[in-house]
Amino acid sequence: MIQQTLVLVKPDGVKRSLIGEIIRRFEQRGMKIVGLKMTKIDSDFSKKHYAGNIDKDFYKGLENFITSGPVVAMVIEGVSAVEVVRKIVGSTEPKTAEVGTIRGDYAHASLEYANSKGEASKNLIHASGNLEEAKDEVAMWFSIDELHDYKISHEEHTF
Ligand code: ADP
What we know:
Blueprint: E1 2-9, H1 11-15, H2 19-28, E2 32-39, H3 43-49, H4 59-66, E3 71-79, H5 81-89, H6 102-106, H7 111-116, E4 125-127, H8 131-141, H9 154-157
Antiparallel strand pairs: 1-3, 1-4, 2-3
Bound molecules: adenosine-5'-diphosphate.
């Protein structure tokens, strides 16, 4: 039941100074950050992380985007964390993402608009899509000694 999932604040979120706001939304729901770092990835790492998207028309734009600046990577732990985090993040396209989600509150452009410019959608965040992906991505981005085992008060009151 308690799961770990990978979240990235993408380069647009970092450059828009939304790191704190994004982290706040996960903390607000009582979820625990067990790993956190800022890093800049290269083209090879992008191909590893987005292996499932390599054949997509938008991949080149996506690689350009994700390697364009630093990202903040974090591992979030909580009850059904994979599903709950995706819900907090919102659906892929900012235009149709629900208001109240991170993508729905801080972005608005359509995928069509991104495509017309040959760019990836600047949708602020990556979050693992399912439990298997979460396990792979946590291991890809964090070594064991970068993940921390500690208690937060929510484990008594919220978990
Ligand atoms: P998500 O990040 O919501 O899991 P995907 O895994 O489908 O979405 O896509 C990875 C990323 O590629 C998206 O977050 C977005 O930045 C970009 N993207 C997805 N689909 C498109 C598209 N049709 N046009 C432009 N960029 C896209």
